[in-house]
Design a protein that fits this description.
Bound molecules: 5-phosphoarabinonic acid
Number of domains: 2
Strand order of the largest sheet: 1-12-11-7-10
Distance between the termini: 56 Å
Strand content: 5-15%
CATH architecture of the largest domain: 3-Layer(aba) Sandwich
Radius of gyration: 23 Å
CATH superfamily of the largest domain: Glucose-6-phosphate isomerase like protein, domain 1
Shape: globular
Largest sheet: 5 strands, mixed
Helix content: 40-55%
Structural class: alpha/beta
Number of strands: 12
């Protein structure tokens, strides 16, 4: 991998920079063999196809299918409504938000993540259903929120379009099983698969994220290329050097040895706010587990906070700097924003505002990020920075894969199953009872 486009600077996670709250050299040395074992375990899951997320970026076939389907959809429709929740929603949303400056395709709307009628009504007010395609995304096919939204849209499509309504639906779901697959077959929808061995929150680089991305005019081959370069680096580099592995090792030490169980992810980019929410789900749902893989009670987990800089510098930074010593902060910096604006001189106005003059907005963003991280360092708050060269398809694909690897590594180190979510089931059972009764 050419390292210049994605780097992880972990200096401020370490003791020589932040003092006793940081990771010591001895602690780091002790965890390196565990990192190696964790990497081998993940590679084994990949080789045996038990978990598929690491190989998704190699799947050229899916790129081809998603591009072809998106091209057809774009020709016929102006709008796409994507219905999904959790892992079937947040990745595509993150792409939509992050790449608004490059997308040039369909107008994409997101619903199905809430049963608040306002979410769907707002979209229905904006679109003409005759020119709208619905992409219902659910691996299981049985999820309340997207499927109830789908039933409403299906009904409206049937009323407005008549018999050929099925041509307006694309179902992204399990390749063989589940109720959505069954409905798709019964009613004749086009379908795209979410591989069986890829869980919802690890599925952004499958058709789940790629089809909406292609429809919005994003270069999905480059998205996968970025993911592939990060996956290849993970395979090829030593674990003590590899960026997501270092991230995992340092954060597990921070959590276990220092009680720093809150991980703030704070991109300094307004476009990466939804990406931070995607990370939040990945970390929370993968690592929050009551028992180890062998069944010992541990009540493990780290609490992710999705922040955005510099907005949250004036909102949450006070807590990060002076509150409990229970957090780490990771900034994501974008070296070159591409588009930029200069702050002009304003003759006659006081120096207090004129000192901002002559700076570009992007250089101010960098100053703000570096100042935040330095201020945290000075008050002994461990922090790190992931730096990407520019916000484009390749770096976004790389960021997705970076966090998927880091979280899988943390799962191994903490000895929890990062790929299931039994804690969500109880609420689902209670909802089912409430609906029946
Ligand atoms: O990560 C996960 O597995 C979950 O967040 C699921 O993606 C979410 O519950 C939606 O599930 P489904 O795709 O089956 O509708």
């Amino acid at each position: 991998m050419k390292k210049s486009w994605l780097q992880y600077d972990d200096a401020n996670m370490r003791r020589d920079q932040v003092g006793k709250t940081g990771v010591s050299t001895a602690e780091w040395t002790r965890i390196v063999p565990q990192l190696r074992a964790a990497k081998q375990a993940i590679l084994q899951l990949d080789r045996t196809k038990t978990q598929g997320f690491l190989s998704l970026p190699k799947d050229a076939e899916t790129v081809k299918n998603c591009e072809a389907r998106a091209a057809q959809t774009r020709k016929r429709f102006s709008d796409l409504i994507v219905l999904g929740i959790g892992g079937s929603d947040l990745g595509a949303r993150a792409i939509h938000h992050a790449l608004s400056h490059v997308r040039k395709g369909m107008c994409v709307h997101f619903a199905g993540s809430s049963t608040d009628p306002g979410q769907l009504l707002r979209i229905l007010n904006e679109v003409n259903l005759k020119k709208t395609c619905v992409n219902v995304v659910s691996k299981s096919g049985g999820t309340l929120e997207p499927m109830s939204a789908f039933l409403i849209l299906r009904d409206r499509l049937k009323t407005q379009i008549g018999k050929r309504f099925a041509e307006h639906v694309i179902a992204t779901t399990d390749p063989l099983d589940g109720v959505l697959r069954q409905i798709a077959i019964q009613e004749g929808y086009a379908t795209l698969p979410i591989p069986k061995n890829v869980g919802g929150r690890f599925s952004v680089l499958s058709a789940c994220g790629l089809f909406p991305a292609a429809a919005m005019g994003v270069d999905i081959a480059s998205l996968l290329r970025g993911g592939r370069e990060i996956a290849d680096a993970f395979r090829g580099e030593s674990s003590s050097v590899n960026a997501p592995s270092r991230y995992a090792g340092l954060h597990v030490i921070a959590s276990r040895k220092r009680g720093q169980r809150i991980q703030v992810v704070m991109p300094y980019s307004a476009s990466l706010g939804e990406f931070a929410k995607w990370v939040r789900q990945l970390v929370a749902e993968s690592l929050g587990k009551k028992q180890t893989r062998s069944g010992r009670s541990v009540f493990e987990g780290v609490t992710p906070i999705a922040a955005v800089g510099p907005e949250d510098q004036h909102s949450q930074l006070q807590l990060y700097a002076e509150g409990p010593f229970d957090k780490t902060v990771t900034a994501i910096g974008v070296a070159s924003t591409g588009r930029d604006m200069m702050v002009p001189r304003a003759a006659g106005l006081p120096d207090a505002v004129n000192r901002f003059s002559g700076h570009s907005l992007s250089s101010l963003l960098t100053i703000e990020r570096e100042a935040t991280m330095e201020s945290l360092r000075r008050v002994h708050r461990p922090n790190g920075t992931i730096q990407i060269q520019s916000l484009d398809e390749r770096s976004l694909g790389g960021l997705f894969q970076f966090y998927e690897i880091a979280v899988a590594m943390m799962g191994e180190l903490l000895d929890v199953n990062a790929y299931d979510q039994p804690g969500v089931e109880l609420s689902k059972r209670i909802m089912k009872e409430a609906m029946m009764g």
